[in-house]
Amino acid sequence: MRFLLSTVAIIVAAPALADTFETPAPVRAATLYPDGASVTREARLDLPAGAHQLVIPGLPADTDPASLRVAAEGAVIGAISLQTGRALPDGAPESQAIKDARAEVDRLERVLRDRDAAVAAIRAEADASEDLLSFLRTLASSDNAATGDVAGLTDMVAARMLAARRAGIEAETRALAAEQGRAEDERLLNDAKARLAALQTPQGDQAALVLAVEGQGVPARITVTSNAYNAGWRPVYDLRLDQQAGTLVLERGLMVAQRTGEDWSDVALTMSTSRPSGQSTPSEVYPRMVSAYDPRDRMARTAAPAPAMKEESFVAPVTEVEPVVLDAATVDFQGATAVYRYGAPVDLRSGVDALRLKLDSRDLPLDALVAEAVPAYDEVAYLVADTKNPLAEVILPGPATLYNDGVMVGEMDLELTAAGDEIHVGFGPVDGIVLDRRTPDRESAEGGLIRRDASQTETAVLEAKNLTGRDYRLRLIDRVPVSEQKEVVVDWNASVDPTEQDPDGKRGVLVWESDLAAGATQEITLETRIRWPDGYVLSD
Questions:
Q1: pLDDT tens digits, one per residue of 465-505
Q2: Is 79 exposed, middle or buried (0-12, 13-18, 19+ CB in 10 A)?
Q3: Is residue 288 classed as helix, strand or coil in its secondary structure?
Q4: How many domains does the structure of the chain reveal?
Q5: Contact 447, 453 (CB under 8 A)
Q6: How far is CA 486 from the centre of its chain?
Q7: Domain contains 427
Q8: CA distances from 422 to 317, 390, 536 (A)
Q9: pTM of the predicted model as reported, rounded to 2 decimal places
Q10: Residue 271 lies in a domain
Q11: Is 119 contained in some domain?
Q12: What's the angle, vertex CA 61, arms to CA 56 and CA 65, rounded to 5?
């Protein structure tokens, strides 16, 4: 067998060795990162004692030579060469896979030949019947037929022709039956030939690893680890709200995919939050140079721009906790890196499978379930669940699909949430809670050309109507202006005192919480007055 190899060698290859062995090394384990993977292959074979050359074909052509790490049990590794684009010397032994593929081609060719021979033999019977019919027609029209027993000859010819025709029909029927399945045999043969051709001529996106090994006379186990860049994983979630039961469930999963050019079968997967391909050192701060010039001097030269700083991504640190046992995987932390180990081997085909692996299902505390109303922007209220992260580890950022009483209602991006941090999740509109914000009395009063004072007054009526047949806990949210100057004074008054002001540090935001019974209406009047000195211009 020949391999297309280019001379990308880690160590200059050793001189030709006595024996050359070829063995596959399928992927047995992979550690996936958000961008990239570390792939471990394994080969097992019997190596006689002494020096040999070992060829491991089928590696992706984009394998990074610097990332290769080779270890052995039962053998000693010498020179290592990753090669693409130049053929190995002749004489490399034919692999067992090629031998098996060639034997299958031979077997299927015999099957097809035997079928064709059987059909030909049957059709020969049909041809013989046609020949007999032709002879009988000739006999019936000969001169001898007019001088003999015409009646007897006619009966004999008629009987023979009938028998010949029946024999021909029966033979053709058997021939058609024997041909059934030939198309399938031909397809199987073509597939077998294609497999053999693929084994004999590696694709252009493959490489071969050539090792100088010293056999110990015992079974050898060779492990090869390298980096793959077309692979990765991300967390995915389902959030399921059951209003009647009053429960909120977080289902956690991992979405994995790879496009390395080879299919993975029975591979042990580990998912790590580490980013080896990302930034590993802090950005450098360059001097900031400033200068000034007289704009009247047309010859002045502008200051040279400061060197552009690199734009790098930042990975938020992960809180270190003790290992936690999950339903289908385990997670622990190596420093600030979260590591998930999936409990069962998986199959992952290149460029085909986007595989979702289940981690676990966790109950979240349902601290509050409210109809949140923002009449300044929305026409209906939205169902919002207040919860927190009860786990002993962080919840990693990722897309989440939202279900309300078994019905999918939307999607959201779940943010990085530390243990104990609050989470607010919206579960779609409550179409029966209608909102309105009216400003029936809005005026702006200013003095004349010379003004001592200016002011603006606004009266807003906030309204929420519950047109549904059930009671809700209403959380109504609005805002008032905020002044950052002592000269600008803001006064406000509400017909109902808010239950919370400036939530989460959002200045000027007001929150009212109350029960909203079925068919009821909640109405709040909010008056705001802004005053500023004469001569100033108010801006928002």
A1: 999 999 999 999 999 999 888 888 899 999 999 999 999 88
A2: middle
A3: coil
A4: 2
A5: yes
A6: 55
A7: yes
A8: 18, 9, 43
A9: 0.60
A10: no
A11: yes
A12: 75
